[in-house]
Hints:
four-stranded antiparallel sheet; Neuraminidase
Amino acid sequence: MKKLTPRFWLQRPIHWSLVFSFTSLLASCGSDNIPIGPTSLNSRYTEEQPALSGNGRFLAFISNRNGSHQLLVYDLTEQRFVRTPGLNRPETITESPSLSYTGRYIAYITSDQGRPVVALYDRATQQSQILTPTYRGWVRNPGISPDGRYVVFETASRGQWDIEVLDRGPNLELDIPNGATVDAPPN
């Protein structure tokens, strides 16, 4: 003959502890804790793939707010979003942002004729350009140097993932702090 009373008695506290734990977890994840508004960093939508500028002032990330997949730039000092006209095109996906030192240049993945390409957005000129229009393989995970001259990314043009370094050239306006000295590139 088996005793069912002790086992049932032990299961009851475990059951109630799970109920209380789950209830407190749901209460702590309530929507009242999320700041909402046009200037709030977080929203009720998915925000992912954060990238911080070298000076720590600007944050770029991918968001699904406003009903579309877009790359947003947030000024952490002024606690507001930065306007980026021409960056997010309709019906295109942007991924993997990377920022230069002051956030002037943003390297990211976008699509061009159905293929992923590395693009670069210049916040000073408010223009975006595709850096890898002729790559045969797939590209992913771009990164930009603090001064904005070099862009690195992964490419599968040889049938495996390799790393490419793209030198944008010595004649571009570098993203450096005001008053900083610039050394000549080595030959």
